[in-house]
Write a structure and sequence with these properties.
- There is one protein chain.
- This protein is of the alpha+beta class and 167 residues long.
- The protein has one domain: Double Stranded RNA Binding Domain (2-Layer Sandwich), CATH 3.30.160.
- Helices cover 38% and strands 27% of the residues.
- The chain has a four-stranded mixed β-sheet with strand order 1-2-3-4.
């Protein structure tokens, strides 16, 4: 009987290195708990509906790429954008070509209290056979992998955490 217990104990000790807990992920720090949702208002810079949808998709990708995606319902922190057309040129050709220069200002803020935590602005250009396609072409040039967005997001997360630590 004692021999059986020793053999079982030996095997238990041998295989104990293969046993793992249900969750081996460490605790999430404060920055890991910040969730941000993309938000595009309906009256943003005179953009048409298709361009607004394209912008919302780009904002969603930026948030997701940086690991901050939150639900779109009842989320306090948002990533939004302001769009301003800087120039619009219609090149007389067949078919006509529209060239747009657009300034996009990205803002991370508190949707409840109206506090801005971080902003980043960039100028993009787009061309197309219609005004709508020129707007969409410009918005498609927003690349979520741009390192400037990562700096902007990190600054926003840091300021959100500082805000809550001070309250």
């Amino acid at each position: 009987m004692i021999t059986n217990i020793r053999i079982l104990s030996f095997f238990a000790f041998l295989f104990s290195g293969y046993l793992v807990a249900q969750n081996n992920v460490g605790k999430t720090d404060d920055a890991g708990r910040v969730a941000i949702s993309a938000y595009v208002p309906s009256d943003i810079g005179g953009l048409n509906t298709a361009a607004q949808t394209a912008l919302k998709n780009r904002l969603d990708r930026i948030v997701t790429k940086n690991g901050l995606a939150g639900s779109s319902l009842n989320n306090r922190f948002i990533l939004t954008a302001k769009v301003q057309k800087l120039s619009s040129v219609k090149v007389p050709s067949t078919p006509p070509v529209y060239n747009y220069e657009i300034e996009v200002t990205f803002i991370i803020g508190d949707a409840i209290e109206g506090i801005k935590f971080s902003t980043y602005s960039t100028t993009i250009m787009g061309a197309g056979n219609t005004e709508s396609s020129a707007e969409i072409a410009a918005i498609k040039k927003i690349k979520e992998s741009d390192p400037e967005y990562q700096k902007f997001i990190e600054e926003g997360k840091k300021r959100i955490i500082e805000y809550f630590n001070s309250k």
